[in-house]
Amino acid sequence: MIILKETMTRQLKSCKWGYRANPLSVCEPCTSPLPLYDWMYLLFMVLISFVLHCIAIDINTNRKSSYSTVLMHTSAFLECSIAALCTLLLLSPTSELRLHSCGVTSIQDWYSVFYNPTLQGGTTLHCTQEVVYPLYTSVMIYFSLQIPAMIIFRPIFSNKRFTQRGVDSASPIYGALYFLPLLVLLQTVAGGIIYYSFPYLALILSVVSLTVHLSHFQDQNISALFSQSLCNARSFCILLLCFFLHGYGIFSLVISMMDISQHSIMAGCLLLLVPAPYLIYILTSKHTDPEKLDSHTVQ
């Protein structure tokens, strides 16, 4: 009986990478196409790293040297794009721009390390595996490939022949070397939470970023806000990025709640709400100006 138990224990093990157990506890290869919502999650992780690159570049470069700043942003875009493309080509099916998926049924799939089975004798079988393949490894590979991509492209675009004087091209690289490991740690610890909440995170980030950006303008009149945010190239690019994040969050939220193929008209109508936070801020700015509020308080 003891020998039989030991034999069964040896036979019970986790599935191979890219495999998942079926209802009969038999490991099967994951050959299902990656769902649209999972694609949106992966793209969100790509966007997060790109936005952080842009923030690091914008903080550490001279805003007067717009040409050099554009070159640095172009380098960041190429780094993220090439890292994402190489990640797709490396994963199954290899050398193809598509991915196989094991599927996600619940948040427990993301944390299989906490759900190892225990036998009657108290023996714990360590069957930890990537149940949500490829959502864990693809993001990890993408973040890892960004470092060599940055080492290759960033020196080219920050060459003194192309950039202007007074441009600090090293600080954005140092910043990336800090936030990329933090993103890996965040994906490891909170990957499942981000997977289920990234549409809301995109909406919150877009609204907060837009509000902070518009609040930096000294003149908070309606006409001044329109002209300053639309006529300035840097401000207009930030505005477009906030609009894209807001639309991305709305579209992802619609996908998570309904079949987009059957509710395409509703999804299109909801996307019309993309400029809503921008218009609400500008139209209500005169009622929330701190100077006017202070003057009313004194009176």
Automatic annotation (TrEMBL):
Membrane spanning stretches: 39-59, 71-91, 133-153, 173-194, 200-217, 238-258, 264-283
Keyword entries, A-Z: Membrane, Transmembrane, Transmembrane helix
InterPro entries on file: JAMP
GO biological process: ERAD pathway; response to unfolded protein
Domain of life: Eukaryota
One GO cellular component term noted in the UniProt record for this chain: membrane
Molecular function terms from GO: ubiquitin protein ligase binding
Protein name, UniProt field: JKAMP
Source organism of the structure: Bugula neritina
